[in-house]
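Handoff note, outgoing to incoming analyst
You'll be picking up this chain. Sequence as last confirmed:
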Amino acid sequence: NTRLQVEHPITECITGVDLVHQMIRSAYGHPLKLTQDDIGIRGWAFESRVYAEDPFKNFGMPSIGRLHKYEEPKGIAGVRCDSGIEEGSEISMYYDPMICKLTCYGATRDDAIAT
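Most recent structure output, in case you need it:
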């Protein structure tokens, strides 16, 4: 499968494999350095998606406008935040209103939940 799955942060967190890096290497014609036997599963991970949706429209439409306040979690062990937005960005009606994917991971399911 040549597509990067939207849940790839989960896989990266529990395997330690940078899938984007591996896909770029493959696109350049480099052989894979890993076999399936080289990849283990270590721990648990959960992904949450943060959206700018309008609750007064049954969460079906973006809550458009300028994002006046936005702080990503930084420097927290077991937390990964993937976004393409920052404070002051514009939320448009022409794009998906997802602001970020927040992934929490840990050695056990309880650790990942507690993160």
